[in-house]
Write a structure and sequence with these properties.
The complex is a heterodimer.
Chain A: H1 3-21, H2 29-36, H3 42-76, H4 89-103, H5 107-129, E1 130-131, E2 134-135, H6 137-161, H7 164-175, H8 185-200, H9 202-208, H10 212-217, H11 222-244, H12 250-260, H13 266-290, H14 299-317
Antiparallel strand pairs in A: 1-2
Helix pairs in contact in A: 1-3, 1-13, 2-3, 3-8, 3-11, 3-12, 3-13, 4-5, 4-6, 4-7, 4-11, 5-6, 5-11, 8-11, 8-13, 9-13, 12-13, 12-14
Chain B: E1 2-11, E2 14-24, E3 29-34, H1 40-47, E4 55-60, E5 63-64, H2 70-76, E6 77-80, H3 92-97, H4 112-124, H5 140-153, E7 158-162, H6 170-185, E8 189-193, H7 197-203, E9 206-210, E10 216-220, H8 221-224, H9 227-234
Parallel strand pairs in B: 3-8, 3-9, 6-7, 7-8
Antiparallel strand pairs in B: 1-2, 1-4, 4-5, 9-10
Helix pairs in contact in B: 4-5
């Protein structure tokens, strides 16, 4: 039982090291070691510290945020198939980002537009699910699904209207792509904050699995807990989507992988989801950068290629 | 002391309970009997503070339930619900240990005292060797006993149980009733919604009968659980059964 957490935690430095060691430019072990210690060749130093390290950390932050959001949504919506895309936040961000591309505004404008789209989606989900009779997980689910398909239609419309030169950039954004990711620091801070906040609620989340009434009878302030966890999941999803676009399957699959390995208490599940999601996306992104170098594959394609069979396998095991 | 005064409950436009006065004193074991849809579950939920009554109040030690902090209420009142999400991924022991939440909610420290108490509760309900088994793989009756073990671990003064005997075989029905009876003798207040008048007559001191259209009557089991009352309650003729009708001795 103890080996799984140890392996998952050990995977964090290992995946980051691999992400820094491999890239489109071959750096030998000696060169790599020098560059890591800020010695030797300036180009190698720039590649390691200026390009690969931020990219590796961006991938880690993105994957960690998505997996954390997925783990939270799965317990809150009591639905094993819940993942960050279900909030409609990814769809809102995608519609905003594509609109910005269509209008030809710069990178800052694109991020702002994606943030605006994500906020509109999140706001709508909150507004529609906090009904008069309190919080309702099913309304969250339905609102999120409705918004996601609405934004999907909007995205399709923009794709069909866009000049062909822009379509490839748009498709990369939609598939999930970390190549424009520059500064992972905001996402890392959000990851740490969300993980800490979610962890502080982990014992109450364990009890929430028994259902809202039972949790209430055991002393859990259910509405407050749901608001905190939903807020966390939304914030994490927004931060991840702004950094890497709509990367799928990490948020869905990672918490299930841990549950199937015997990790079910949220005190362990939440932090380990963040670690495993981050490590897996750092590895997937390394593969995306190197598999067809010098061309880059959208990392979302790789996570889907791994995620779909894993998901089908899991569905087979879930009765 | 848990007291309902002038309690009125309705669900789906039907009046279930009208102007019910009920006071549950420490040491008393109550049964709650009625036909399907008579309002047993609604009454249990209202007494537990999980549903607001349409009329009247429920008070614990003279203070309305809503005025008690949730955490404190969880140490005083424990409730076994009829339905529960079965999607728990951990072991039987992990499941029972959730009953410790009102008393120990630290994510860091190991709750050895709680684990020992949980094992004791599991043994009491014939699940001693099942503590490491995955909860999801238990049978329906075993799950029901694990849920009761969790309830007992909560160690509240007042136990409200909605159909505690569902899914249980004859022997375990009697075992659960004896366990609840011991809780009452130990000074706890116990109220159980039951479909088994035989068990109620043998183990419970008092009975609440919920009739249709909001009528209720309550009193000592020996006075309440008569053939005439039960025939009126269940709206069918009853006869003393011969072969095949047994209660565990």
């Amino acid at each position: 039982m103890k080996t799984v957490p140890v392996l998952v935690v050990a995977l964090v430095p290992a995946s980051l090291a691999l992400a820094i060691a491999f890239g489109s430019v071959d750096l030998g072990p000696a060169q790599l070691a020098d560059a890591l210690l800020f010695r030797g060749d300036e180009i190698a130093r720039e590649i390691v510290w200026g390009v690969r390290a931020p990219r590796a950390l961006a991938a880690f932050a993105c994957g960690g945020l998505l997996a954390l959001a997925g783990a939270l949504l799965q317990v809150l919506l009591r639905n094993p198939l819940a993942d960050p895309a279900i909030l409609g936040v990814s769809g809102g961000a995608a519609a905003g980002a594509l609109a910005a591309m269509l209008l030809g505004v710069g990178a800052a404008g694109l991020n702002l537009a994606a943030l605006a789209g994500a906020s509109i989606a999140a706001g709508a989900v909150f507004a529609f699910s906090l009904g008069r009779s309190g919080w309702n997980p099913y309304r969250v689910l339905l609102t999120g699904v409705a918004l996601a398909s609405g934004f999907g239609a909007l995205v399709g419309l923009m794709l069909s209207l866009a000049p062909s030169a822009q379509v490839q950039g748009m498709l990369f954004w939609l598939l999930g792509d970390l190549s424009p990711a520059a500064d992972p620091s905001v996402a890392l801070v959000v990851l740490a904050a969300c993980a800490a906040l979610a962890f502080s609620q982990s014992a109450a989340l364990d009890v929430l699995i028994l259902g809202e009434d039972k949790a209430r009878s055991l002393g859990v302030a259910v509405a407050r807990l749901q608001a905190i966890a939903f807020g966390c999941a939304t914030l994490a999803t927004v931060a991840a989507v702004l950094l890497g676009g709509s990367i799928g399957f990490v948020g869905l699959v990672v918490p299930h992988l841990l549950r199937l390995s015997g990790i079910h208490r949220h005190g362990a599940l939440l932090p380990l989801s963040a670690c495993l999601g981050g490590s897996l996306l750092a590895l997937a992104d390394t593969l995306a950068r190197t598999a067809a170098a010098p061309a880059e594959l959208p990392v979302g394609v790789l996570t889907a290629a791994i995620g779909v069979p894993v998901l089908l396998f899991l569905l087979g095991r879930l009765r | 002391m848990l007291e309902a005064a002038g309690l009125g409950l309705s669900a789906g436009g039907r009046e279930l309970v009208r102007a019910l006065d009920l006071s549950l004193a420490p040491g008393a074991f109550w049964s709650l009997l009625g036909r399907n849809g008579a309002g047993k579950t609604s009454l249990v939920l209202a007494l537990a503070g999980l549903r607001s009554p349409q009329a009247g109040t429920v008070a614990l030690d003279g203070v309305a339930l809503a005025a008690h902090p949730r955490g404190e209420l969880a140490r005083r009142i424990a409730v076994l619900l009829q339905d529960e999400e079965p999607d728990f991924w951990g072991s039987v022991l992990d499941y029972v240990m959730l009953g410790r939440y009102p008393r120990s909610r630290s994510a860091w420290s190991r709750d050895e005292e709680g684990a020992a108490a949980a094992r004791h509760r599991l043994a009491e309900l014939d699940l001693a060797d099942r503590d490491a088994q995955t909860y999801r793989t238990l049978s329906g009756g075993e799950r029901q006993r694990a849920r009761i073990a969790q309830l007992l671990l909560q160690d509240a003064d007042i136990l409200l149980l909605d159909e505690p005997l569902q899914h249980l075989d004859l022997n375990h029905q009697a075992q659960v009733m004896r366990t609840l009876s011991r809780c009452a003798s130990g000074g706890k207040t116990v109220l159980a919604a039951l479909h088994e008048p035989g068990h109620a007559a043998r183990h419970c001191d008092f009975a609440v009968l919920l009739y249709d259209a909001g009528r209720a009557s309550l009193g000592r089991s020996s006075d309440m659980l008569t053939q005439a009352n039960l025939e009126a309650l269940y709206q069918c003729r009853l006869e003393a059964a011969g072969t095949g009708s047994f209660l565990p001795s």
